[in-house]
Amino acid sequence: MRHVRLFAMLALVSFVPAAAHSAAPKGARKKMEKARVEKATFAAGCFWGVEAAFRQIKGVVSTQVGYTGGRTQNPSYEDVCTDRTGHAEAVEVTYDPSKVRYEDLLTVFWKNHDPTTPNRQGPDVGEQYRSAIFYHSPEQEAEAKTSKAHLESEHRFRRPIVTQILPAGPFYRAEEYHQQYLEKRGLSTCHIN
Question: For the domain that residue 112 is a member of, what is the CATH number?
């Protein structure tokens, strides 16, 4: 008889209506709200300065520097510097779209490098220093293309914009000493504005 009662209680617990689960505790709701973030990935030369620029933007939750857009898996900094892996030094930006728009992130991207120099930013030369936007959704792709076309139509630059607009692929986090490199050293920029 005891087993029958226990089985009946377990059966009742497992059939609690889904609506009862939707009233999540306060802590769980905060976690769900926190989960409403998006990613954006940009390559604009040396990732130290690019990361520093994005970290100053209200609504940016976190950043990490790494390598993307290449042909090999798990490249190291030394691998990427050989100019044989095809990776770009990039920054993956996690942001809250209720506080900062993707369009605003694109503005930061365009203002913080020279998008007309193929495989080069200032003294840094090589494919890893190319200008690229790696989109994570069709909406990001459309906004990136519109933004680039708008800049081209305004003739802000003397030369053509060579920025690539590509689908985001695997992102390999760079070595820890590269993360927030300038911030750790009390520097604000090493970048071309």
Answer: 3.30.1060.10
